[in-house]
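re the bet — no i am not wrong, look at it urself. input seq straight from the record:
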Amino acid sequence: MQLRGSKQAVVAGGAVLAALALAACSSSSSSSSSSSAPGATGTSTATSGGGSTSGASSASGTINGSGSTLQLTFEQAAISAFKSISPKITVNYSGVGSGTGRANLAAGTVNFAGSDSPIPATETADFKGQKVLYFPILFSPIAVTYNLSGVSNLKLTPKVIAEIFQGQIKTWNDPAIKSLNPGVNLPSTAITTAVRSDSSGTTQNFATFLQDGAGSTWTLGNASTVKWPSTAHAANGNGGVASVVKSTAGAIGYNDFATAQASGLSAALVQNKSGAFVAPSVSGASAAGDGSVVSPDLTFSAVWASGASSYPITAQSWVLVYAKQPNANDVALLKAYISYLLGDGQKLLTQIFYAPMPSSIDSKAVAQLSQITS
């Protein structure tokens, strides 16, 4: 699958602008209650009440977030659109990776964190017993991107992808790759793997896919950091991995679909649980997400989902906040922004290469807003 470069970026940019205009003009009649929120570096200048599912609010102040680079494109679009309906609220978001975002939330240096995976057991103590709420906001395909001149519609299985990233398959004309792509002129070019250097939810979901899809072939575990072979080229963030792939002939990496599109990278068709080879797409991510089994705390996984049209490397992403906030204004600010992400913000997603939450999950997240209190 070829994700075209500058032309695609222009199209995507136009779609975002159109979506932002729509979001700025739209409103919702359903309301959510306003409460209170925990320790982060937000500044409050007034205390005024809650929002609607569109997130519009007369509250005033600043909230800061950090974390997932997978959700960064959505955060940027949503923050811009939200500002047009709640001009007195400033939202800042830094894409530093899911692990760092969770660490910042635990340290109280941000009001919310973006994370593509639940808090792992090794980090639980960092939150000192405080309740963290999970608000699911999107699904994203993780594209297996590659730089191989003249090769399109490359097909790969989970087992072959695992062997590539473990350094067992070293060249593009390896028999295992050739057997999946008959008639394709695969070169003898050496394979360069591009991976994340930071603690990453994208990595964790990618590793989960390899663990589930490749079984015992995959031996590098499942975590937000993986001990890759020494030959791997590590880079920071989804953008960093995309840059390595784009600039390195023979490279292969893994990126959220929005970044892959914006970078103009080719993406492999990946064999799913049903045996079909599927390209990353919004519809494929939606198909995977629709079958998610949701826990009471709203955690779940869309990776390696059943269904012939499901894209097998579909990540889910959350906004994480403390249930208990230091003051009522922080509550109002967080509720306003999160309710926007869960409401009118969902309209932005398909135009920037993400899939929205199904109503069955989104409604549970909206109901959970009442748990943010001071």
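see?? The radius of gyration is 20 Å. told u. also The longest helix spans residues 6-25. so pay up
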